[in-house]
Structures are given as C-alpha cells and as structure tokens.
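The instructor's notes for this session suggest beginning with a concrete chain rather than abstract definitions. Hand out the sequence below and ask the class to guess, before any prediction is shown, which regions might be ordered.
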Amino acid sequence: MSEEYLIPNSITEALQMLDGKRRPIAGGTDLMVARRTGDLGATSFVDVTQIPELQKLELEEDRLLVGAGCRFSDLEVLLREKVPGLAEACHQVGSPLIRNLATLGGNLVSASPAADTVPPLAAFGATVEIVSLQKRREIPVAQLAIGPKQTQLASGELVTRIMVPIRKSNEGQAFLKLGRRRAMAISIVNGAARVLLEGRTIKEASLAIGSAAPCVIVSRSVPEILIGKELHDDLLSGLGSAVASEVKPISDLRASADYRREMCGLLARRLIILAYQRALKGGKS
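After discussion, reveal the predicted structure:
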C-alpha cells in the first residue's frame, strides 16, 4: 500500500489536509515504533514540523503558551525558571536523540499511561488548545486522554498549544519517575507535585501520578490532607496511604500491580517533601 506524506506551512493548511485517513506527525518517534510492530493503522501523514506557530513559546500574563511542536531538548532549558517541574520531566524523556525529535504535543496525543510530561502538566493545571476548521476548544490536560492510546481528539482536530501556569515565588514543583534505569527507560511509576505556601503553611497542593492507571490520576486526597497545615511525618504517612488507595495499577513485564501501588505511595511522599522544601526556598531546587 502506497504512503502519502503531506507538508503544510500553516495550521489552516494542515487542518484542510486532515481527515479520518490522514494522521498528523511531528517528531515521529512513537509512529516509527508502531510502523515496525504493524500497529500504525495509517498510511497517510500530515507533517506539521514546518508550521511556525507550533514552534512558538510565548508569555501571556501568568502562563506560558507552549507550541505543540516544541521539542523536549529546547523545553528542558527554556522552562527551568518558569515551570521547573515540567523542565525536569522534559529532561527525562527518552535519550538525547529522542528529545531532539520528540515534541510536547506528540507526548500528549500518544496517550501513553507512562508519558512523563502528563503528570506535571496535570498537577500544575495546564490546559490544551484543540482546533479544527470549525472551532477552537480548550480542555485540561488531565482530560485529554480517555484511555491507553485514546484521546478526546475528533477527526480533523489538531493540538496546537499547551497553556501552562507559571510558578509563583512561594511555590515548589517537583517531578520524579521510577524506572529500571535512570535514563532511556519507560516509567514504572511517575509523578509530579506542586505546593504553594503561606509562610510554612500549605495554601495549595496538587499531585498527579502516571503509569498507575489507564490515564493520569490527579489525587483528590492530597489537597484535602495538606491544605491549611504545615508538613510533618504523620501527615506524610497518611498521605502515602491515601494516594496508594487512589491508583489502579496493572501488572505487566515492568512491575506488578502491588509493587506499583506501594511505589505510588512512596513517590507521593517524596514528591510532596521535595515540592515543600523547594517552596520554602522560593521555588529553587
């Protein structure tokens, strides 16, 4: 079967090319793997790497507008001051070669339960812009994926930007992942946390865990347990147990469900401690 490869120069042109049979492609790191395994499911592609609007990083009041085509190798540097927790995640995606090709938008629409950038984006309250020829809509990143390899995107829609809140001066962010190796490993469990302080008291707190359910889990128990309190050991013990009870892990070749559940509780405690300590230092790591 012959393949079709189209290269638009604008978002409008790309949208005109997209239909149920054509698939957008940027870095292509996941698509090439799917092609080798026979799971690609498409033979027509729309290459969006030449669209200038998708490469932009813009500041708008208290948030960053990150083009879906921005590559991880650039973002891990550009985001260090404004969104350090996301920069940490970008730095840990794959290898340097992958980070030079892979894009933030691609990481989101691949809808992998283990995607490293989804927990920080979900925990920090980021939203994603989705456009078609008919309309534009904005939804929380945490709601984009509806299952493994499945998203809310309809035929003819394209992710164009990710809107990410900027870290406040009294806010700490953290990202951690557990894998078989420190680099080039798919996460067994990953997560991100955000803590906003008023003095030493927690004013706001959020935590998201990945690779522990079909989609990212934004913890409901973390803000309930932490807000209005100073961090201490008893609080952390209860928090770890609460987060472990929220996740829905599976057993696979990388880890058992029981191991993942235990590690989710441990990772949650470490993330909150790290984010809290960084908040005390004005967000510095």
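Then share the key points. The chain has a mean pLDDT of 92. The domain at 171-280 is CATH 3.30.390.50 (Enolase-like; domain 1).
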